[in-house]
Amino acid sequence: MTDEPAKPIRVALLGCGVVGSAVARMLVTNAADLRARVGAPVELVGIAVRRPAKDRTDLPVDPATFTTDAAELVTRADIVIEVIGGIDPARELLLSAMAHGASVITANKALLAEDGPTLYAAADAAGVDLYYEAAVAGAIPILRPIRESLAGDDVRKVLGIVNGTTNFVLDKMDTSGAGFEETVTQAQALGYAEADPTADVEGFDAAAKAAILASLAFHTRVRGADVFREGISDVTAADIAAAKAMDCVVKLLAICERTTGPDGDGINVRVHPAMIPRSHPLASVRDAYNAVFVEAQAAGQLMFYGRGAGGDPTASAVLGDLVAVARHRVAGGRGPGESAYADLPVLGIGTSTTRYHISLDVEDRPGVLAQVAQAFAAHDVSIETVRQHIPANSATGQAHANLVVVTHRATESALSATVDALAASPSVAEVVSVMRVEGA
Amino acid sequence: MTDEPAKPIRVALLGCGVVGSAVARMLVTNAADLRARVGAPVELVGIAVRRPAKDRTDLPVDPATFTTDAAELVTRADIVIEVIGGIDPARELLLSAMAHGASVITANKALLAEDGPTLYAAADAAGVDLYYEAAVAGAIPILRPIRESLAGDDVRKVLGIVNGTTNFVLDKMDTSGAGFEETVTQAQALGYAEADPTADVEGFDAAAKAAILASLAFHTRVRGADVFREGISDVTAADIAAAKAMDCVVKLLAICERTTGPDGDGINVRVHPAMIPRSHPLASVRDAYNAVFVEAQAAGQLMFYGRGAGGDPTASAVLGDLVAVARHRVAGGRGPGESAYADLPVLGIGTSTTRYHISLDVEDRPGVLAQVAQAFAAHDVSIETVRQHIPANSATGQAHANLVVVTHRATESALSATVDALAASPSVAEVVSVMRVEGA
């Protein structure tokens, strides 16, 4: 570095909601530290907002900083930070920013999972940086460790709780015994769930994050649409109670697995609720906290834990990226670009292996257990435990029993064929619930 | 990147012990992936060893790769990986490597804590990289998150279990009830402790790691010698039992704290055994696993967990650094250099605040509790709980009682003056044990 005063780094901020205002505030209050760490002053040249009339006097920035012309703003910055979310207009703005020579930092998981390669190609063409640590698991440094710290290792599995809303809902269902609808209403009242909670409760948000994690972990393009996705809206109070009986909790998990087996080399990426043992470290992840397990060939098991959402935590991740990108502006160099050389096939859910917890309402007569066991054996699914419970008073007058079967690990296709066979069996009155079991 | 075949990156490896041979093996077996991730072939041009006669046929490398001339080897490499440890000759070799234009990757915590600034200055003068993720907490990506991911945030505290040997010993003392000496002997037999366990059990290893963590977290030069250090050799079976009675475990903690108080702005860096509640996430860290908590202004609490030692886990960290450094060779740019601009004073242990668990053998007569309480009050130390236990049969014939006092948070100087006053008090027969309490 020379002794000449370094040219300021011009930063444009797109969006000024919870995350955007936290970013703006940190840019101002941490200015001296940022300058020392970057080697040049970092200057907030503009904040694009949709509603200029909104009162933002609590932010320590000149009112003239705000603009509604995002398209113009991105043409006069060295670094553009995007925290507006959604596909459009975010995509056009970021592509224009890069075409104008700006590096880009985004927290936009939906856009990255939908069209990441286009962003990477634009960054490459313009010779600029594309960073997005804040897009997955908020404040937790998880993308940089996967794409840099583990770059010499061979990642085998990523398993995490990456959505705070569903975690809050499942946690509350576990402690209160209440049903899904009731708990979501409560979460909405507390601000933990949005008015339209679909993206969270149906697993779209977690699926986008899983796609990003899998892309980096396995050096393969994975889109959100490639991810098997099952939300938590079908999780019942009975499922939670069944998990409790097993000393388990139900969590919405994002799972990315590298598979090498008879079904071929590839990767499995899925998001679904699953039982995990209460003793598992992920079981104690509460509220808006997130946690991600990473298993690599040489490193073994690693866990990362921290706040998965919120203005300040997300802003922390954005500012970390900002320092990295700004350093490149000052001292040269570029961060890692897209790494998709492995180009592994994304395998269908049928080939992934898991364990099932199946609760059945069966007739209470000799031979039923044998028939049920036969349905499993016919599909090569090995049973780990069977518990039978005969209700004291059968409401129907007919003798029924509740049968809970936990399987060993088997492929999804074998497990789901087994469940179909059970549902069609005359001995089975009802398949009460089916849930995957992970982490055991 | 161009279509021309990229020039190979020449890697020299210093040391071929547990970590070195894991690095060599990964360099060979992961060669195709490394080439794709770096953008050029990575070629192991030499391994410096002390004992060339040793059988290393299990390693998939050409025997001609081995050399005893480390000084010559470092002059013909683009990247030098040092895993021999200790101050000399590691320092001279790394300085020579950098003077000859090589970037350096080292796992040498002792050297970094002793003389990091000299290494950084040499890297800066030569325009090369200095990376050392493997020096702290093995496979856990902790340095890169602190120096890069949290670069825009304000780290307030780092608290971790960073030494596997002491963790194994304390863990075994907790489960077996055995004493320190006996457990160390057992750990040596199992390969968890070295023949001379001083560096581990007296906290030197953890202090070096604490110095590195504090330097990065607080942008201030901290040497191993600046770290307050208390090992575990004075931890008795009685201390462990006292911790159990409080539903706590004893762990050797490395603590780095940013303080802003009446005693001034500065940092506190210390390594000592402490009780932590059994419910605290660090309490369940077993054997050779490490875990590090980081608290930052905006990010909040983060935790990182994984294998803290061992050949493969440490090699994973080394190879991650290798990919980063090699990418710079191929695509330009340099990693972060030394950041010591904050230059905060390293405060003495007296100003740090903690809680104490004090077990006293006192006379069993009226007024004693009041005198003990007065000793605390006189030094402004607030008492949280007092428990008194009168043994059924006093061996001395005189009436004695055991008094356990747990304090609120106070400065070390006030706490230690209190303990001195208690030891001098005629009502106190013996100060049985004093232990810090953290994480509550």
TrEMBL record, chains A, B:
Its cofactor is a metal cation. Pfam families: ACT, Homoserine_dh, NAD_binding_3. Residues 357-436 form the ACT domain. The keyword Electron transport does not apply. Pathway: Amino-acid biosynthesis; L-methionine biosynthesis via de novo pathway; L-homoserine from L-aspartate: step 3/3; Amino-acid biosynthesis; L-threonine biosynthesis; L-threonine from L-aspartate: step 3/5. InterPro entries: ACT-like_dom_sf, ACT_dom, Asp/hSer_DH_NAD-bd, HDH, HDH_cat, HDH_CS, NAD(P)-bd_dom_sf. Keywords: Amino-acid biosynthesis, Methionine biosynthesis, NADP, Oxidoreductase, Sodium, Threonine biosynthesis. The keyword Translocase does not apply. Its EC number is 1.1.1.3. CDD domains: ACT_HSDH-Hom. PROSITE patterns: ACT, HOMOSER_DHGENASE. It catalyses: L-homoserine + NAD(+) = L-aspartate 4-semialdehyde + NADH + H(+); L-homoserine + NADP(+) = L-aspartate 4-semialdehyde + NADPH + H(+). It comes from the Bacteria. NCBIfam families: PRK06349.1. PANTHER family: HOMOSERINE DEHYDROGENASE (PTHR43331:SF1). Belongs to the homoserine dehydrogenase family. Catalyzes the conversion of L-aspartate-beta-semialdehyde (L-Asa) to L-homoserine (L-Hse), the third step in the biosynthesis of threonine and methionine from aspartate. This is Homoserine dehydrogenase. It comes from Nostocoides vanveenii.
